[in-house]
Specification:
By secondary structure, the protein is of the alpha+beta class. Helix content is 35%, strand content 15%. Strands 3, 4, 6, 7 and 8 form a five-stranded antiparallel β-sheet that branches.
Length: 264
């Protein structure tokens, strides 16, 4: 009996391991297969110091891998403006500068549109040179295509001085104080009416040199006159004193004679 029990226990231990292995094998074959999703990682475009990844071989577990942020290089969009001064004359046109170095010009209207009014700066009397006695009109160019400038003077409709598009100054004859002067820009499409900032009234402002010269010239003419007036005043005063002295002496003589007569 004891040997039979031992044989039975040994048989059980021999049979159970194959059955346990077969049970778990069938259970594993009955459940759906587990697949891991393939994650494709994109690296920075054009960045240095980054590893190159094989998209067909590299796989990551969603529980351990974290997504990476993709950064893009920053672009400098600050515009480069052309070094162009609309108030300086005989400059290279801004359009030519833009073609040469790729800079940006201010917005300009084309040749088929009447130009905007220019801005007048000053009316300066010319005190030297061949243009002495004339008035220089200084202005700044508008943001438009200009072929020439014209000067319109109040009360002088027939007189319209002109100067070229590269220049910023023109000359007019002598002006009376308070005369209104306007600058008009012209191209193939015509011109526009003058605006408030394209016109200015003339105010005579003499330079210190001219003021000193005027005082010297006036003094040279006034000095002889002062001498003549002074001489006349001194002569009149001397005659007055002489006449007064003569009258006093005559009165004294009469009084002396009267006193002598009374004593006698």
């Amino acid at each position: 009996m004891t040997s039979f029990c031992r044989n039975l226990v040994a048989l059980v231990f021999l049979v159970l391991p194959p059955m346990h292995s077969h049970f778990f094998t069938n259970a594993a074959s009955a459940s759906p297969p587990i697949t891991r999703p393939q994650i494709i990682h994109m690296t920075d475009m054009g960045s240095e110091g980054q590893d190159d990844y094989d998209f067909n071989k590299e796989e990551y577990d969603t529980t351990t891998a974290s997504p990476r942020m993709v950064s893009f290089p920053k672009m400098d969009l600050e515009p480069l403006l052309c070094e162009y001064d609309p108030c300086s004359e005989n400059q290279v046109p801004c359009a030519a500068l833009s073609e040469q170095i790729g800079c940006l010009c201010p917005g300009m209207s084309g040749a088929n549109v009447p130009p905007h009014p220019p801005r007048i700066q000053a009316l300066v009397p010319v005190s030297a040179g061949s243009d002495r006695g004339e008035i220089q009109v200084q202005c700044c160019a508008p943001s438009s295509v200009v072929s020439e400038y014209r000067i319109v003077i109040e009360g002088r409709d027939s007189e319209v001085p002109k100067f070229g598009d590269a220049s910023r100054r023109g000359l007019v004859r002598s002006l009376e104080v308070g005369t209104k002067v306007c600058v008009v820009a012209v191209n193939n499409a015509g011109s526009r009416d003058p605006s408030e900032f394209s016109c200015k009234r003339y105010e005579c402002r003499q330079s210190p040199v001219l003021t000193v010269m005027a005082w010297i010239i006036g003094g040279l003419f006034a000095l002889p006159l002062l001498v003549v007036i002074g001489t006349l005043i001194c002569g009149t005063y001397q005659k007055f004193r002489k006449g007064k002295r003569d009258s006093t002496d005559e009165l004294t003589k009469v009084q002396f004679e009267h006193c002598s007569a009374v004593v006698v």
